[in-house]
């Protein structure tokens, strides 16, 4: 590297201008950067040594808490043993072992996994598999995809097309054609539901209405988050997912659950599919797979889906798809260690027990300043705030900033404060999180 380049880099120091950050207003960040130097357990630690309670599990992913030593050591050991091997026509023992254990962890009947590197890649892979599945069965008519309002499915072109968050699509079109969307299964009458709303299963009938318009024989798959996450934490009404499953079965349509957020214990079960008692044909996962320590994603499919690809000649590639870093040795080591930690520390049982207190404490904020709705399920929570007159969408960010100043990291999204803590959160930490939020709300105008 030229000396001039070295000098330029040195002069920058830690100024955040070289790193173009995701989902970040760069000029505002440069004026007031948020930097974390290390993490442990339930806390981030700033370069100055200030401890911040993590109310977001990083970004919905550090489910077992930060710096789990077994995961750290597994990554270190793997890096020294096998730094890389392709998964194209070759593999390594950890990939085979992790695939088997992950499928044991998944709902019964989902027994094959295609490894990728993120939730976005998992969704785009699942959509391609869904179309290719029908093609392999001689039904190439089925190409249409159905998503849902407020759904988030990553930032690839496929995921963005089936997502239901219009602002994130602006500037990137045209996206995929032949995509339709279900409405949000929620209305004002369901506000302040603790857990799954008792009413609202009838929203699933909108799928039948869409199929009347689009022809069910042209539809490849329906993709939904079991619990809408980034779009605002909307739990499914009781009976809603069951009805979607039945309609998909009736018309021969694959049902995909995007469990990038809800997978790995978030609802007190390995996946939301088990917690809610509805099994899809395909699950996408990422985030919690490696406890956020190494990028990884997966697409877990049923035996029926996998089997459709295995009908041709045995020496021909069944799925022309993949990534350089699929089943990376470090990621597989981290994934195996994460499953060890979950089993040895009883993480899922702890999450299930804590969720009762978590949800009850969250709903105590009903009646607090500006609170318009509270939605909870498992260890997820959204506190929706009434919009500030003339400045809609600003209260969530202001509330998140006030919480950070008070030592708790939450996520502000428009006029909503979103929470998804590590599953190891204690009773006192639950009280701290919601106590800080209550104080922050009192400061908002």
TrEMBL record:
Entry-linked PANTHER family: ADENOSYLMETHIONINE-8-AMINO-7-OXONONANOATE AMINOTRANSFERASE, BETA-ALANINE--PYRUVATE AMINOTRANSFERASE
Keywords assigned by UniProt, alphabetized: Aminotransferase, Pyridoxal phosphate, Transferase
Lineage: Bacteria, Pseudomonadati, Pseudomonadota, Alphaproteobacteria, Hyphomicrobiales
Organism, scientific name: Bosea caraganae
Family: Belongs to the class-III pyridoxal-phosphate-dependent aminotransferase family.
Cofactor: pyridoxal 5'-phosphate
Listed InterPro entries: Aminotrans_3, Aminotrans_3_PPA_site, PyrdxlP-dep_Trfase, PyrdxlP-dep_Trfase_major, PyrdxlP-dep_Trfase_small
One of the GO BP terms on file: biotin biosynthetic process
Name recorded for this polypeptide: Aminotransferase class III-fold pyridoxal phosphate-dependent enzyme
Protein origin, superkingdom: Bacteria
Gene Ontology molecular-function annotations: adenosylmethionine-8-amino-7-oxononanoate transaminase activity; pyridoxal phosphate binding
CDD domains (alphabetical): OAT_like (cd00610)
């Amino acid at each position: 590297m030229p000396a001039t380049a070295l000098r330029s880099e040195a002069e920058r120091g830690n100024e955040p201008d070289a790193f173009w950050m995701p989902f970040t207003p760069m000029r505002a960040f440069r004026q007031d950067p948020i930097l974390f130097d290390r993490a442990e357990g339930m806390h981030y630690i700033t370069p100055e040594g200030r401890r911040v309670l993590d109310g977001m599990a990083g970004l919905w992913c550090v489910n077992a808490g930060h710096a789990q030593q077994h995961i750290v050591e597994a990554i270190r050991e793997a890096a020294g043993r096998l730094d890389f091997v392709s998964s194209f026509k070759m593999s390594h023992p950890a990939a085979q072992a992790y695939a088997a254990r992950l499928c044991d962890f998944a709902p019964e009947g989902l027994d094959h996994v295609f490894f990728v590197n993120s939730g976005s890649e998992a969704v785009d892979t699942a959509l391609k598999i869904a179309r290719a599945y029908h093609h392999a069965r001689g039904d190439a008519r089925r190409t249409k995809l159905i998503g849902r309002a407020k759904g988030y499915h990553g930032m690839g072109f496929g995921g963005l097309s089936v997502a239901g968050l219009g602002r994130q699509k602006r500037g990137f079109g045209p996206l995929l054609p032949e995509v339709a969307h279900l409405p949000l299964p929620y209305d004002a009458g369901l506000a302040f539901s603790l857990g799954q709303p008792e009413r609202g299963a009838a929203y699933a009938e909108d799928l039948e209405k869409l199929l009347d318009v689009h022809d069910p024989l042209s539809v490849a798959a329906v993709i939904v988050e079991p619990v809408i996450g980034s779009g605002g934490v909307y739990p499914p009404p009781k009976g809603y997912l069951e009805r979607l499953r039945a309609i998909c079965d009736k018309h021969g349509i694959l049902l995909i659950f995007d469990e990038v957020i809800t997978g790995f214990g978030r609802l007190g079960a390995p996946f939301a599919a088990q917690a809610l008692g509805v099994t899809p044909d395909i699950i996408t996962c990422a985030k919690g797979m490696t406890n956020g320590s190494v990028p990884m994603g997966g697409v877990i499919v049923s035996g029926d889906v996998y089997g459709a690809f295995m009908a041709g000649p045995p020496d021909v590639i069944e799925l022309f798809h993949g990534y350089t870093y699929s089943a990376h040795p470090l990621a597989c080591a981290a994934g195996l260690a994460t499953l060890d930690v979950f089993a040895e520390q009883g993480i899922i049982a702890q999450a299930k027990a804590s969720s009762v207190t978590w949800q009850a404490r969250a709903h105590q904020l009903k009646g607090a300043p500006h609170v318009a709705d509270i939605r909870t399920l498992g260890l997820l929570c959204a506190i929706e705030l009434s919009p500030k007159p003339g400045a809609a969408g600003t209260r969530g960010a202001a509330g998140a900033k006030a919480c950070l100043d008070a030592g708790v990291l939450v996520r502000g999204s428009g006029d909503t404060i979103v929470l998804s803590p590590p599953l190891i959160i204690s009773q006192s930490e639950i009280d701290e999180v919601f106590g800080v939020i209550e104080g922050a709300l009192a400061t908002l105008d």
